[in-house]
Write a structure and sequence with these properties.
466 residues; alpha/beta; FAD/NAD(P)-binding domain; Enolase-like, domain 1; 3 domains; five-stranded parallel beta sheet
Length: 466
């Protein structure tokens, strides 16, 4: 029986990063993945393929809506759906092959099959052909991620009523689609199909899109998506969805109890994700779930010594980069180091266009905690760089402590926000003041100048370009 210092169950961003860091620190490491390709949901049916489709459809949308303004004549532009999907598959394949290379490079043994605990130090791997192999391990990191959630009364048939997994591999472009859920996944995939020409309707339970982010971002995003032709039914509770061979009928009711029905070609259920902990054998080692998640202490260790859990299966936001940080944290903790994670400074991003990104506290959160703050908001329509590229939708908002000027939150919707939020994260990690940022030189003309101006407004109540 093979023996390891550390075994990781799950090869998503948290799992494979944990495995690499453990190997770098001199541990004999194994990783178990139930599917043939490494990378988990993120690489295979999540982050990577969705971004590939978002980029492709954004190119198409610009060609059909903006090229003429740039002086580019592109008559007869059409979308080849099969090639769109083929390119996406190529991107995914390249990434998974890269992960296989990294496993070999770091001398990490890869087991393909479903891993489950026989005991605290013994794991069985059930392979696709039904055979079972057992390995021994001193420590284990559970990194099995999550899977799409659904709603009561809605059966996912994976044909007409689908999740994000099926949406990313559709053989045909739908004429119409209802998206249940106006969160990150819902808005991103709605953008993919709307840009391609699908009639998209979003039904959302809350009164705002991306309701877990700052309210102003949700309002701005809705304005942008509406210009694409999307329709929105906010404050609506979906009560059912029934599919036949060619369509889906979705039932909902608003806050007043008024009922409505919607008919569409496809219904995408995008109401979040839930931890994947099935058939892990947790009962064999004495780990009990808490509201579906694996309880861990401050070192991300479970109640069973030597067994850790990271990513979507534990508390906190379900984000790939959060899982990656936790994978490194656990590896270094096992090695006797003293790593840290500031959970307040894990950025959230929505990869629509314009992109949405945020870190730190929202205005509502600061009000609830009775923290006095100053606000600086700068619109991209006042940015020379944004005007040059026709990306004038959106704004950057900075929240700074009223007394100390320390930055407490950064919220932005605009072109390249997914990359620009890193400046906000870094500033807050070093507890910078808004003045620290606006007195730092920002290249001109760039989108990041909007961050500088927002900080200036938050700190001193003035701007230069507004």
């Amino acid at each position: 029986m093979n023996q390891y210092d550390v075994t990781i169950i799950g090869s998503g961003p948290g799992g494979y990063v944990a495995a690499i860091r453990c190997a770098q620190l001199g541990m004999k490491t194994a990783i178990i993945e139930r599917y043939p390709a490494l990378g988990g949901t993120c690489t295979n049916v999540g982050c990577i393929p969705s971004k590939a489709l978002l980029d492709s459809t954004e190119h198409f949308f610009k060609a059909t809506h903006e090229f003429k303004e740039h002086g580019i004549e592109a008559a007869g532009v059409s979308l080849n759906w099969s090639q769109l999907m083929a390119r996406k598959e190529g991107v995914v394949k390249t990434n998974t092959q890269g992960l296989s290379f990294l496993m070999k490079k770091n001398k990490i043994d890869v087991y393909t099959g479903h891993g489950s605990f026989v005991s605290a130090n013994k794991i069985s791997v059930k392979k696709q052909d039904g055979t079972v192999e057992e390995i021994e391990t001193k420590k284990t990191i559970i990194a099995t991620g999550s899977k799409p959630s659904t709603l009561p009364g809605i059966e996912i048939d994976k044909k007409r009523i689908i999740t994000s997994t099926e949406a990313l591999s559709m053989k045909e472009q739908p004429q119409s689609m209802i998206v249940i859920g106006g969160g990150v996944i819902g808005c991103e995939l709605a953008s993919v199909f709307a840009r391609a020409g699908t009639k998209v309707t979003i039904i959302e339970y809350f009164d705002s899109l991306i309701a877990n982010m700052d309210k102003e971002l949700g309002k701005e995003l809705q304005k942008v998506l509406k210009k694409m032709g999307m329709e929105f039914f906010l404050s609506h509770k979906v009560t059912g969805a029934v599919a036949d061979e060619n369509s889906v009928t979705v039932s909902a009711e608003n806050a007043k109890g008024e009922k409505a029905e919607f008919k569409t070609d496809y219904c995408l259920v995008a109401v979040g994700r839930k931890p994947y902990t099935e058939k892990l054998g947790l009962e064999n080692i004495g780990i009990a779930l808490d509201k579906g998640r694996i309880p861990v202490n401050e070192n991300l260790e479970t109640n069973v010594k030597g067994i850790y859990a990271i990513g979507d299966v534990i508390r906190g936001v379900m984000l790939a980069h959060k899982a990656e940080d936790e994978g490194v944290f656990v590896a270094e903790t096992i090695a006797g180091q003293k790593p840290h994670i500031n959970y307040n400074l894990i950025p959230g991003v929505v990869y629509t266009w314009p992109e949405v990104a945020a870190v730190g506290a929202t205005e509502d959160e600061l009000k609830q905690k009775n923290i006095a703050y100053n606000k600086g908001s700068f619109p991209f329509k006042a940015s020379g760089r944004a005007r040059a590229s026709m990306d004038t939708d959106g704004l950057i908002k900075v929240l700074a402590h009223k007394e100390t000027d320390e930055i407490l939150g950064v919220h932005m919707i605009g072109a390249r926000a997914a990359d620009m939020i890193a400046e906000g994260v870094l500033a807050m990690e070093f507890r910078a003041s808004a003045e620290d940022i606006y007195r730092s030189s920002h290249a001109h003309p760039t989108f990041t100048e909007a961050f500088k101006e927002a900080c200036m407004l938050a700190s001193e109540g003035r701007t230069i370009h507004l």
